[in-house]
Amino acid sequence: MSEFDEYIVHGEPGQKEKADAWQTAIGLQDVDGLKVSTYLLDTARQRIDDDIYRRNVE
Predict the structure, then answer these.
(1) Which SS3 state, helix, strand or coil, does residue 3 take?
(2) Per residue in 12-33, pLDDT tens?
(3) Domain region containing 33
């Protein structure tokens, strides 16, 4: 189970797409042996919920 399954299963279409993209990015970090920070997960959730915008994440 991923951090974003709730969005993927029950989210609105835009949320599902964003959650899937974040899940993929985090999975790639895991493949590279990188530990996912709490900050990254919090930022991803805020972005999925449109609480912050792309320019704030970059």
Answers:
(1) coil
(2) 889 999 999 999 998 998 889 9
(3) 5-57
